[in-house]
Amino acid sequence: MKRAIVFGATGGIGQAICRELALSGWSLYLHYNTKKEQAEQLAQELFAKYPELDFMPIQLNFATSDQELTSFVNSLLPVNAAIFAQGITNYGFLGDEKLTNISQVININLATPIKLTKLLEPQLMKQSFSRIVYLGSVYGGAGSALESVYSGTKSGLSRFAQAYAREVASNNLTVNVIAPGAVKTQMNSIFSQATIEEVQEEIPAGRWAQGEDISYWVKTILNPRSSYLTGQTIYVTGGWLL
Fold it and tell me: Which InterPro entries does this entry report, sorted A to Z (predicted)?
């Protein structure tokens, strides 16, 4: 049985990834932090459609201790793939940011995913093929003013994936980043309609992405035939910025 863990499964992109992978025959751990009800509803929805597969909500706070992270990973059944779709940002000038907010963005977007990758490595190495996919951002390649810390974390994911992929390539473990542009998700709901339309006019494809535009590429990377693609950042932006 193919099994993946999707971190941030209750987010807009995370839910699209779960639905795409379930359709492709993957059993899933559905990670959440506080949105237990949403994770359970998603699990019920997927199980109703694919009763031959397993869908298990699982809770983890990315701000927890290293010991708790270790215990979390040790509690998992073997997985073939880990998808890191969680992420947060704060909008504003760096000089106005609280140090605690800076630490939180770095921890959730970059530091804890790296720690979890290290902890998951032994079981991923045991599989005939295994995959790690991080959700980066177009701002990891073209930094965004007012999101400098966020941009730094997403750029860091790309460089980490590039380096780490070289360490594990001989073990049939690939490591890649999918970097979306502007996606219609809850995280972007703070923008006014005028701002949304202004951004849309800048996108050559003429629209914001949907979650399915991103989940397609996650599914493709998880295909066993994608074994020669590793260490890459794939920008899915509709031609925007990069």
Answer: NAD(P)-bd_dom_sf (IPR036291), Sc_DH/Rdtase_CS (IPR020904), SDR (IPR050259), SDR_fam (IPR002347)
Question: Which CATH number goes with the domain that contains 121?
Answer: 3.40.50.720
Q: How many domains does the chain have?
A: 1
Strand, helix or coil for residue 74: helix
3-class DSSP state for residue 175?
strand
Residue range 231-238: mean pLDDT, rounded: 95
Instruction: Return mean pLDDT, the chain.
Output: 94
Residue 220 lies in a domain: yes
Q: How far apart are CA 148 and CA 97, in angstroms?
A: 11
**Residue 165 within a domain:** yes
Write out 181-231 in H/E/C secondary structure: CCECCHHHCCCCHHHHHHHHHHCCCCCCECHHHHHHHHHHHHCHHHCCCCC
The tokens of 178 are what?
């999918």
Query: Are the beta carbons of 153 and 105 closer than 8 angstroms?
Result: yes
Q: Is 124 inside any structural domain?
A: yes
Structural domain includes residue 242: no
| Of 27, 7, 3, nearest in space to 81 by CA | 3
User: 73 to each of 32, 53, 85, 117, 149, how far by Cα in Å?
Assistant: 14, 21, 17, 10, 28
pLDDT digits (tens, 9 = 90+) for 26-64: 999 999 999 999 999 999 999 999 999 999 999 999 999
* Enclosing domain of residue 92: 3-236
Above 90 in pLDDT, residue 188? no
